[in-house]
């Protein structure tokens, strides 16, 4: 439903940012439910998956929040 709203208003920038946020949240949920058992796991198997994927989530969230901050500032000045 939200994708349709962005598509109808032809606002592809906000759609892209929303997809980045949704992708980050889905990666977070994935890491909470599953983990990869690899060579470096050891006693704390889940933490290797968490550290690998949470870095990517922080990157997605930082880019999305930078655009959101720009959008908020742009709306207030314009």
Question: Which key phrases capture this entry?
Answer:
78 residues, mainly alpha, 79% helix
Low-confidence regions: none
| Share of helical residues | over 70%
Based on CA inertia axes, which overall geometry fits? Answer: elongated
| Secondary structure tally, helices | 3
Q: Strand-residue fraction?
A: under 5%
* Number of beta-strand segments: 0
Question: What's the gyration radius in Å?
Answer: 17 Å
Task: Tell me the span between the first and last alpha carbons.
Answer: 28 Å
SSE run: HHH
Would you give an account of this structure?
The relative contact order is 0.13. This protein has helices spanning 2-8, 12-33, 45-77. The protein is mostly helical. The longest helix is centred in the C-terminal third of the chain and has 33 residues, at 45-77. The chain contains three helices and no strands. The mean pLDDT is 79.
Tell me the layout of helices and strands:
Layout lengths: L1 H7 L3 H22 L11 H33 L1
Helix pairs in contact: 2-3
How would you sum up this structure in a few lines?
The protein is mainly α. The protein has three helices and no strands.
């Amino acid at each position: 439903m939200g994708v349709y709203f962005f598509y109808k208003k032809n606002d592809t920038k906000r759609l892209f940012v929303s997809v980045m946020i949704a992708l980050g949240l889905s990666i977070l949920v994935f890491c909470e439910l599953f983990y990869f058992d690899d060579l470096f796991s050891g006693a704390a198997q889940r933490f290797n998956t968490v550290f690998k994927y949470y870095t990517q989530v922080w990157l997605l969230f930082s880019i999305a929040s930078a655009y959101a901050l720009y959008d908020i500032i742009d709306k207030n000045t314009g």
